[in-house]
Amino acid sequence: MFMENKTNAFVSNSRAFLARTLTLKKMTSRKSCKAILLGDSNCGKTSLWKKHTETGTNYNHIPTVFEFSETIIFLDKNSEVKLTIWDTPGSSEFDHVRLLSFDGVDVFVLCFDLNLPESLENVQTKWAKEAKAFSPSTPIVLCGCKCDLQDVNKCDKDMIDKVIQQIDSSAYIECSSQNNTNVEEIFKTISFLAIGEANKIKSEFKCKTKKKNVNRCCVT
């Protein structure tokens, strides 16, 4: 009788441990996704990337060749994403090699300087074309950088709305690396798009889109 009780207790405890393990594994399952930052040199994309991945307050322009980082984005208490973020060079001399970083991309983030209309125009004429030529079904986030410079903001709403429609952007967010405006929201938005949960993006950042987003993330 004693051994039978010990056996039953062991089986019961083992089942409870297995159940807790499976629950924990399910709760902490992590999807791995990749985002590519594109935009003109000095438009603010590198400062955005550095603000998210590093500490400090000095975000002066430092030209990028190719850099990437891996970061964990907590979407809610039971969901997280391991997001690999590639910061790419904006100079035309890297046009051919920049495409080498696109393999496996889940979201393109097209950045422009809110104070330079030509950088917004280049989103339409260069960066969106480059992204769509590589992967036309990959979702796009349009990101207006340097929104803290409100007194010299030169890209008006009509201009931005026109580009949003023409590039079929899934989300539009204005940010400032200088004062940390919407920096984390950008990367949460990217993550929701990457895992196919665009419905969870905050309503103020959503854009009307015609395409269905494709989820190519892997679970690790």
From TrEMBL:
Protein name: Ras-like GTP-binding protein rhoA isoform X3
Presence of keyword Cell division: no
InterPro entries reported in the protein's UniProt record: P-loop_NTPase (IPR027417), Small_GTP-bd (IPR005225), Small_GTPase (IPR001806), Small_GTPase_Rho (IPR003578)
PANTHER family: RHO FAMILY GTPASE
Pfam families per the UniProt record, alphabetical: Ras (PF00071)
Keyword line: GTP-binding, Nucleotide-binding
PROSITE patterns: RAB, RAS, RHO
